[in-house]
Specification:
By secondary structure, the chain is low in regular secondary structure. Helices cover 0% and strands 10% of the residues. A two-stranded parallel sheet has the order 1-2. It holds the Pfam family CUB.
């Protein structure tokens, strides 16, 4: 049984969650009750057509899976621009992040 499907003792908040030291543990509310659980979000690729958004790698905040080639297509109308703000980037040795312009081989980010 993993920690996502059972309650853990309050003392677990001082320890890494479920064997993944990069994940955060819960907090206390006014009733001094606490729940500690693991959480993972993210996807491997997709289309973004909204005016703003956030992209997470698969299994974020844990390590992303091996042998993944995730492609995100960000689409806006021709009179708009795309601004990319990278707040957290941790890439494994041998992996890379490439940003290119659609219908062009011109690389926008080394």
């Amino acid at each position: 049984q993993n920690s996502a499907s059972r309650r853990l003792p309050i003392t677990d908040c001082t320890a890494p969650c479920g064997g993944d030291e990069s994940q955060f543990c819960g907090g206390q509310d006014g009733s001094q009750k606490m729940e500690v659980f693991e959480a993972a979000i993210g996807a491997c690729g997709g289309d973004v057509k909204t005016s703003e958004g956030v992209i997470y790698s698969p299994n974020f905040p844990g390590p992303y899976p091996l042998d993944q080639n995730c492609v995100w297509n960000i689409q806006v109308s021709s009179q708009n621009i795309i601004r990319i703000n990278i707040e957290l980037l941790d890439i494994s040795d041998g992996d890379s992040l490439t940003i290119t312009e659609y219908r062009s081989s011109r690389q926008l980010l080394p």
